[in-house]
Write a structure and sequence with these properties.
Keywords: Acyltransferase, Transferase. The chain is α+β, with helices and mostly antiparallel strands. The protein has a single domain, classed as Aminopeptidase. It is built from five helices and five strands. Helix 1 crosses helix 2 (37-45).
């Protein structure tokens, strides 16, 4: 078997979208995904890409992905936000998650960022433990805050 992690290509976006949908089901939000393959191609591979993506392969089949982008911290400066790291359920426990995780951290060092951050659901005990085992700090006192498009419009009276 040939296992590897590489930078994603435009042609990988249908498989990436499948993984995104699989993650949404796992996170108990099966109908939440609105992004399309076309959105991913446009937003990740245009003149000013909004994200970077790595894929994990087993025998040329995409079995996992990590999607990340740059942010700016008023305290730290340039940072990376890891939006999602997912390995297809039937391929978990084979090292693909760690391969993707290490690729994200290498990318961060190569780009001289001061911090990599992400969110994890508190009930996702395997992921929380995975991150803690690697030396990551999992904060419990911060809450994620979001506005969806409809809420923004309502807030602005539009």
């Amino acid at each position: 078997m040939s296992n590897r992690v590489r930078k994603a290509l435009e042609t990988d976006m249908p498989a990436v979208l499948e993984l995104i949908n699989e993650l949404a089901v796992y996170e108990r939000e099966p109908n939440a995904v609105e992004v399309t393959t076309e959105d991913l191609v446009r937003d990740g591979f245009g003149k000013q890409p909004l994200f970077n993506c790595f894929v994990a392969e087993e025998d040329n089949k995409i079995v996992g992905m990590a999607l990340l982008y740059f942010r700016y911290s008023t305290w730290k400066g340039k940072t990376v936000h890891l939006e999602d790291l997912i390995v297809s359920e039937s391929y978990r426990g084979k090292g693909f998650g760690m391969m993707l995780y290490k690729e994200v951290m290498k990318f961060a060092l190569e780009n001289k960022v001061k911090r990599v951050e992400w969110v994890v659901l508190d009930w996702n005990a395997p992921a929380v433990q995975f991150y803690k085992n690697t030396g990551a700090t999992v904060f419990s006192e911060w809450d994620t805050v979001q506005f969806d498009q409809d809420s923004i419009k309502k807030f602005l009276n539009l």
